[in-house]
Amino acid sequence: MYKIFLRPILFLFDPEKVHYFTFSMVRFLSRIPLFPNLFRSLYLVKDKKLERELFGLTFKNPVGLAAGFDKDAKLYNELSNFGFGFIEIGTITPKPQEGNPKKRLFRLKEDSAIINRMGFNNGGIEEAVERLKKNKGVLIGGNIGKNKVTPNENAVNDYEICFHALFDHVDYFVVNVSSPNTPNLRALQDKEPLTQLLNTLQKLNSEKPTQKPILLKIAPDLTDEQLVDIIEIVSETKISGVIATNTTISREGLSSSNKEEMGGLSGKPLTNRSTEVIRFLAQKSNKAFPIIGVGGIHSAKDALEKIEAGADLVQLYTGFIYEGPKLIKQINKAILKQS
């Protein structure tokens, strides 16, 4: 129904406006008593065989919602009714920021893709914490970043602020240094600053009564040498795992007229490269750490390929927009068939 009736109508309008409209509709429908149960009956697959134990957490199923969709933790309870095993909120920064000037979100229909240059638009850490206090049992990842005005030499302070504020309200953390839409952010992926940042967060983590898993989200544009550095950094800092991958700055093979828009590209064009990065990390590290696979998952086949390559969990974003919530159910059912 979504692809036949809803998507053609939604795709007639500006994608950012549609995003907020869809949020409003899901929130409205979720307040009508019968609808949450209806959503769960349509999309949720419950089976013990889908459960995954990773870094001390139990995931009800291995299909999550990637960061960027529910940036401000406004709709995670409602979105969980569509069958997700976990929801990642953010990227959140210490202070509120508007992000980059509009227009900043573009559909590439011919390529089943999206380009965004949102720029970590969010209401800041304090607002997100207040919303997360209303969690009704959803497993939450907290994706954290730095404010645009914070210079890289002070970036660690922003990550510390977010870490302390979110600690009691999320189940795991994701350090985002791989978005292409905040100036110079990707420079923090270099070995020395990244090691320093992760060691600092791990030290803060060790001082807590109980520790939270810390994961690193990496770009798909890293070279093999840089990926080897990532493996060494994970080993040295003893973080819990890696999310592979964020959006790409590559425009190879695109056919849409707006393919040259600045920003990060997500969707089908990223499918193969994301899987390649997962496979490289898994093989070169001898599967030394968990990997969450994200990037270009538009079918159950895409998800299974990432799991076969070495992903322990998968996340959706652009595929969720193009294919609808049915995709979550299809992936979980395909995983069950293979179990």
Automatic annotation (TrEMBL):
GO terms for molecular function: dihydroorotate dehydrogenase (quinone) activity. Pathway: Pyrimidine metabolism; UMP biosynthesis via de novo pathway; orotate from (S)-dihydroorotate (quinone route): step 1/1. It is a peripheral membrane protein. InterPro entries: Aldolase_TIM, DHO_dehydrogenase, Dihydroorotate_DH_1_2, Dihydroorotate_DH_2, Dihydroorotate_DH_cat, Dihydroorotate_DH_CS. Binds 1 FMN per subunit. Its cofactor is FMN. The keyword Ubl conjugation does not apply. FMN binds at residues 67-71, 91, 143, 176, 217, 245, 267, 296, 317-318. It is found in: Cell membrane; Membrane. Substrate binds at residues 71, 116-120, 176, 181, 246-247. Gene3D superfamilies: Aldolase class I (3.20.20.70). It catalyses: (S)-dihydroorotate + a quinone = orotate + a quinol. It holds the Pfam family DHO_dh. Keywords: Cell membrane, Flavoprotein, FMN, Membrane, Oxidoreductase, Pyrimidine biosynthesis. The active site is at 179 (nucleophile). Residues 50-336 form the Dihydroorotate dehydrogenase catalytic domain. Its EC number is 1.3.5.2. Catalyzes the conversion of dihydroorotate to orotate with quinone as electron acceptor. Monomer. Belongs to the dihydroorotate dehydrogenase family. Type 2 subfamily. This is Dihydroorotate dehydrogenase (quinone). It comes from Pseudotenacibaculum haliotis.
